[in-house]
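JOB MANIFEST
job_type = single_chain_structure
chain_count = 1
residues = 303
[input]
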Amino acid sequence: MTPLLAASVTGHTHIVEHLISVEYGLVTRQQRIDALELLGATYVDKRRDMVGALALWKRAMDDRFPADGSEPIPKPKDVPRIEAYDFAVEPSDVQQLEEILADPDAMRMQALVIRERILGPAHPDTSYYVRYRGAVYADAGRFARCRQLWHHALDMQRAVLPPLSPLTQSSLYSFAELFSYMLAERARPPLRGRIVPPVTIDDVEPVFTKALSEIDRGMELLECSKLSIDREQTLTTLQRVLVISLHLATVMARLLSEPECTEEVSRRIHKAVYSLVKLDIKAFFVPLSPDCVFKICVNNAKD
């Protein structure tokens, strides 16, 4: 990452302004545009300054289509629309920019789209702000939007990060905590009319499947680790993901006691837990039978 983009990511406006205004061609026109657009995204998510973000995006748009007749630099057209971002499309002119100012959600999605396009999915800030926006939605009671954004962040992390990455672990753990919170809130009287939707097997199972896939990747990494220090580190991280998977299995076990639990849901829960046992993690000294794992999950669910 260049110093210019680093300043844009962290919101150091004075550094950005200095670097893009220095003579002798220190930065290219495309670099200046990216810096202004990325700084605008930082204004939205970090400073919560929608008006300031719009002003920066307008400056970038003016740079893309200069009045002096220079060659225009239109926005990329081959950027895929992402469902987690409400299929948001970046504005192609100033008028479209001004229209989204009236919709705060649209501004927030623009910030996520711009950041992912400029920084790419491998940059930690890309997934961080996607998770942050999901957490804000969860605080507002919009749990479906939260899960949607968190799934996108998790998919990005698993696609570009090595197995058992701390960032991937954190995303999986956030899901487990969210489901536990929703189950706990459902058992309490509604607070100020806020109703927490029920947790379903359709919510938990996709996360559980991704956690098991991460364990599987970790086991492959363990087999390739020849140095003892590498094996020890891999074992530690593998154990953490295993604990998170057991946490998710506990959440699914709690669904068995729900009145809405059908025979089909029960079958899916048992099948999911068996998938964890079937991984056959030999790195641990005490192997557990399927019945033992399921009893642990059920007992924890009762607690």
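[summary]
The two ends are 48 Å apart (CA to CA).
The longest helix spans residues 228-255.
exit_status = 0
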